[in-house]
Amino acid sequence: MTTTVPTNKAVKQRGIEATRARQAVWLLIPTMIAIILVAGYPLYRTIFFSLFEANLTSPDQKTFLGLGNFWFTTDEGVALGFLQDPKWWGAVTNTLLFTVVSVFLETVFGMIIALVVNSAFPGRAFLRTAMLVPWAIPTVVSAQMWSYMYNDSFGLIGRGLLGGTALLANPSTSIWAMIAVDVWKTTSFMALLILAGLQSLPSDMYEAADMDGASKGRQFWQMTLPLLRPALLVALVFRSLDALRVFDIMSVMVGNVSAARLSMTAYARQALIDNQLLGMGSAVSIAIFIIIMVIVVVYVTAFRVKFD
Amino acid sequence: MKKPAMLLAVAAAAALGSQAHAVTVTLACGSVGQELQLCKEGAARWAKATGNTVKVFESPNLTNDRLGLYQQQLAAKSSDIDVYQLDVVWPGLLAQHFVDLKSKVPAAEVNANFKAIIAADTVNGKLVAMPWFTDAGVLYYRTDLLKKYGFTAAPKTWADLAMMAKKIQDGEQKTNKAFAGFVFQGKNYEGLTCDALEWVNSFGGGTIVDDAGKITIDNPKAAAALDAAASWVGTISPKGVTTYDEEPARGIFQSGNAAFMRNWPYAWALGQSADSKVKGMIGVAPLPAGPGGNPAATLGGWQLGVSMYSKNQDAAIALVRYLTGPAEQKIRAIEGSYNPTITSLYKDKDILKANPFFGSLLDVFTNAVARPSGPTKGKYNQVSQAFSTAVTDVLNKKTKGADAVKQLSTDLARIKGRGW
């Protein structure tokens, strides 16, 4: 988002533009106040509490810890900070694995689907609508649906295809089972974003390429893909951010205690809600915030994503 | 029946006397098995007798999820729910949010209950909640299958159970591929803590943290108990047992697909219902013992407490007194196999007729092992999560019992931090 800040000289020369800019500022003020109230204040409170030891049910009785919630070793050598907790690092590793694999698969499948529905064939409009169905189902519902299918005693997949294998029973297989659910659910969303990009490509360019005798494969690699890059990268950033905050699939499919080992947000929820550690939970939330920020900055600078 | 009727009248009068007009009270009930149904019916009986209205709030099935929800409501001082159903391990965690019932409920009514449960519900001299039903783990078995394979009695040790389950499972799987020898609560949640505490305690491995607050889990007997349980997964228990809570386990047993099941007493009434495939073929016994140990059953059970933030406290207290009173506990024992907390009800003929095992297992119910929620106070939940997570890793064969209890001991020291 960029705003043009008119200089004093410009004001004199272009009165209408200056009036519009002033108007824009006034129109933005209510939005800014709303953002400060609903996002800024909670963020401030989270940062504030991350420096204290406090209980969720009685936040008023708190003791200042500094960065003790992050890193603290007692005199007896007991490590109390969450950064010293192997379960936290397990959750980070699993979340990153989940994000990388699911976003990669969603992009590949999404691209294939987008290319298919972009070409003209009868029933295309119906197919475009139908492919959004998995995405339209609420995540908790699809997660529950899939966990029934994975059930080892009556599930379509667990009993029917795999003959009584309990995929969700073991953390090392359950993460893959959940990646499959996420891919099933979100590929269509990815396809939709890529399709929007595809539709903005000029068709006369392809006609010219056909005339020059370029093969379809060559057209894809040398024309479609480079031109699609901006749309594709925005889609990638969106999906990666979503995947890094994964919570509902895991919470529904394996329960909150196991989910806390698989996802950073579930770990934060466990600290904050189940264990009532307001300070520790806030500190974990800050850490998640920082991790996501770093990843976004890396993405945006490495791929030179432009959002305007 | 005279006495309960009188109590009801007294409760009703108390409610009507202090409340000039009828009010609406919201009651949070659980929904495991027939819980919700019985809860609604009991509330309706009170509402009819007093002219008040009761709204029933359906809580999540898993006790961990319920606690999370309740804590948020209580921390926000919400008056949405007047009466909460509390797990026996929660009073220490939530005491500050509940009305002290000591001065509101006559001493005779309180003292009619099991002493151990009243003690668990009393925090720093404050009676946080009134006991509603008690629970202890029991072993369910199929009498017909035991006979078919030549066994005369329920297993006395875990080794016996494994041997019997294997023999029955091997025989039954010839005709029924989905048949399992033994099902229990193996999912990583509070229920697994209950099951695993029974294994550890019956092997003589203590109670995770002792009464003085010392971490005792790192011992060879506890490790042996967890290794024994891990050997069941994939042999006499389905691999998916590590995803089961109470209801999936009951579903398998009740559809005739398991020889043995560890569960709470509520499963009895449902197993004897008309649509149950195993009606009339169920036996109930104490859980088996470990080598050289004694059988152990984890103490469970639920209480009713009145929220401090309730706007209709008098009516809410009247509702709690009615629901935890003898008349209602009797109905719940007969229809749902919920163990009464009132001692005298264990001599009631109607209750014993509906639940023949109540009498013979009275010992199990009165001597059940408490989870270490007393000594670990507000940190109990973290202790339980660390324990059930360690057990999960052993059940999934990711680690051995000895390594798991050693690591758990370190984790618990971290949770204990500067003290419980």
From TrEMBL, chain A:
Cell compartments where the protein resides: Cell membrane
Transmembrane regions listed in the UniProt entry: 24-44, 96-117, 129-149, 276-302
GO CC entries: plasma membrane
SUPFAM superfamilies: MetI-like
InterPro entries, alphabetized: MetI-like, MetI-like_sf
Start and end residues of each ABC transmembrane type-1 domain: 92-301
Biological process terms in GO annotation: transmembrane transport
Membrane topology note: Multi-pass membrane protein
PROSITE patterns linked: ABC_TM1
Main location: membrane
Family per record: Belongs to the binding-protein-dependent transport system permease family.
Protein name per its UniProtKB record: Sugar ABC transporter permease
UniProtKB/TrEMBL annotation, chain B:
Signal peptide: 1-22
UniProt key word Transport: yes
CDD domains linked: PBP2_TMBP
Alphabetical UniProt keywords: Signal, Transport
Keyword Transport belongs to the record: yes
Source taxon at top rank: Bacteria
Membrane-spanning residues: none
Family, as annotated: Belongs to the bacterial solute-binding protein 1 family.
Protein name, per record: ABC transporter substrate-binding protein
Source organism phylogeny: Bacteria, Thermotogati, Deinococcota, Deinococci, Deinococcales
